[in-house]
Amino acid sequence: MSALTALWHREVTTFLRDRARVAGALVQPLLFWALLAFGFGPSFQGPQGEVGAVGFGAFLAPGMLALVVVFTAIFTTLYVVEERTEGFLQTVLVASVPRLAVALGVALGGATLAVGQAVPFALALPLLGVSLTWSGAAMVLVHLVLLGLAFTALGFVLAWRVSTTRAYHGLMNGLLMPLWLVSGAVFPVEGLAAPLAWAVRLNPVAYSVDGLRHALLGTGWASPGVDLAVAAAFCGAMLALAAKTAERS
């Protein structure tokens, strides 16, 4: 536990001291949100939720929260590529510290940062006409934590297996952005063509976005229970994979 806590603390401290990474993780989702909302908002006809007809800015909100988590996972696990072979992590790997603690420490640190950066976005949602109830806020927090752990663990796995930061960026952008785009984050799932609808239903990220949409807007294509079960299973699988990967020399 002491090793895990130390690694978690270092993850958070290292990231917050790097202002460029903090800005990158925050600015890119904001730009996506603004461009998509202003570009497609006038022609969007949203579903009817608990808040009435959903505007495109509000409809995008769950997907943008997920995107904040995705970008934070990318930026927090980037350093693993270099420090695995030279630097702090090399020292940790030769110490008498369980490899499981290394994987969980990185995942918990990244998830803490991801949730910490997504929460201010969620608190600003009333400006878009989205009312947060206590139960809705709790469900948002649960989904953000599960998504943060899952993506940071996935980033750890990819960073452990590549030798350069360029390769890491290519893998993360080539994998995570399609997962986010095909999650129903920017378009309603109802009424999609069959191949795309199946792609969304097979995408575990789609259930996190749908769970966030249920919590914020009271509308979605799957039930809240299914959303939570799939998100938890995906998170558990990624943490197990990260722990297994850390055992590799």
Report on the structure:
The protein is mainly α and 249 residues long. The chain is built from eleven helices and two strands. The chain has a two-stranded antiparallel sheet. The longest helix is centred in the middle third of the chain and has 28 residues, at 134-161. The mean pLDDT is 80.
Indicate the overall shape.
globular
Order of helices and strands: HHEEHHHHHHHHH
Strand coverage percent:
under 5%
The poorly predicted ranges are none
CA distance, first residue to last residue: 22 Å
Roughly what percent helix?
A: over 70%
What count of helical segments does DSSP give? 11
| Average pLDDT rating | 80
Work out the number of β strands: 2
SS content category: mainly alpha
Task: Specify the biggest β-sheet.
Answer: 2 strands, antiparallel
Radius of gyration: 18 Å
Q: Largest sheet, order of strands side by side?
A: 1-2
Total domain count: 1
